[in-house]
Amino acid sequence: MLSAMNKTSPIQVTEYTFTGYPVTDMARARGFYEGLLNLKETTAFEHEGKAWVEYDVGGATRAISNMQTEQWKPSSDGPAMAFEVVDFEGAVATLKEAGVKFFMEPFDSGVGQMGILSDPDGNTVLIHNRKAQQG
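RESULT FIELD:
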């Protein structure tokens, strides 16, 4: 393996293509992401009862799929994507009214407000609202 301290890799990453989250029930997951979070489907692929759905938001893509394997399955132990929201308090209220489980209650992180919650499959999702930049 290359050591970052003494060699440079020839690989050049130009952007994040997407973040994928495995789900067990596509209808339920789409209800959460499209119905509750109001994301709009931009791409969908279906093959033999398995689906991959993408949502483009602000230059990033969030994908959900029920194509999971033993090595790729829903978990709260993995990374989390943060969604920037316009009305943080309103988003928190809407999510709580819908019975969404919060792993960490909303708090001020110093750079903005943040809440850590679970999608219907237990994957970690964050909602966030940056403080206005001063200067």
